Amino acid sequence: MNDRYPFILQTIQEAGVLLLSLRQEKFEVSTKGGDPRDLVTTVDLAIDNFIKSKIKEKFGDESIYSEESKEQIDPVGSFWSIDPIDGTSNFVRGIPHFAVCLTYLNGYEPLMGAVYNPVTKDLFSFQKGSGAFLNSRKIFVSTISRISDAYVLLHIGRREELRDWGIKLQCFLLGAAKKNINLGSSALDLCFLAAGRVDAVIYGSLTTLDVAVALGLVREAGGEIYTLQGEPVSLSSKPQTILASTSRVLFEEINRGSCPI
Ligand code: IPD
Ligand code: CA
Ligand code: CA
Q1: What was the pLDDT predicted at 71?
Q2: What does the pLDDT read at residue 249?
């Protein structure tokens, strides 16, 4: 187990170097699953292959799940989860808010992992029970628990059935939160919560297995992640609504917020 954490840190930084060099060359952009807004590039696929080959070289035939290939995995065993670029829409337009994600899990429980933005060189990492780190400095969620002081990242998502909920929540946040913004990489957004840069991150429709590492990071940094029903979020390969925040108090303030118009 001990050699996995240094492996993750080294591999993800090497993947970041490769990503920056491939970004200088011409790359192709295509869409996934018939959704014109769900993008994948030849760089995503190259990074995916790079990380998979590194895992195979060091750990043989251990199971790997990737956002790009969606392999079936045994939910009770150990496996790796890769999101080669989280924030591909930002990546294709040159917006430097995207990251490589690598997680090692057991039974759908993230044990360790890292998120790396090669442009800013922010390396977020965690090991269950040992804390969360940004470039080797221990990080914690902020102490903010009042909505009027909170920076909130809301991404309502594309599903039609979420629109009423999302519009009401957006309306509440416009009046109640200190800042209400949307950055476009769920993994980095959650890392920002872990590092105390923002105080709540809400995603209407998120495949948590893709960015499992970020959930582990938030929890190690003292944050909490709930469903709209107030249950702790369990990792899933199906999209779900999550509300991550510094505390239960802030979660409740946001979740019961109402729109005055
Ligand atoms: C996307 C990002 C984005 C979220 C989308 C995801 P991708 O991942 O996490 O923040 O809103 O739902 O698909 O496609 O860039 O890896
Ligand atoms: Ca991706
Ligand atoms: Ca993703």
Answers
A1: 84
A2: 97
What is the CA(2)–ligand 1 centre distance, in A?
31
Nearest atom within ligand 1 for CA of residue 67 = 16
**Residues contacting 156, CB < 8 A, separation 6+:** 162, 163, 165, 166, 167, 169, 170, 204
- pTM for the predicted model, two decimal places: 0.96
The two structure tokens encoding residue 90: 């930002």
Give the environment of ion ligand 2: residues with CB less than 5 A: 67, 83, 85
Q: Which residues contact 254 (CB under 8 A, 6 or more apart)?
A: 147, 152, 169, 172, 173, 200, 202, 243, 245
Give the residue among 227, 194, 212, 259 at the shortest CA–CA distance from 102.
212
pLDDT-based confidence at residue 34 (cuts at 50, 70, 90)? confident
Nearest ligand 1 atom to the CA of 32 is 14
Helix 163-176 × helix 248-255 angle, to 10°: 110
Euclidean distance between CA atoms 93 and 3, whole angstroms: 36
Q: Which ligand is nearest to the CA of 239?
A: 1
Q: Quick check: 64 and 52 in contact, CB under 8 A?
A: yes
Confidence label for 88 from pLDDT (cuts 50, 70 and 90): very high
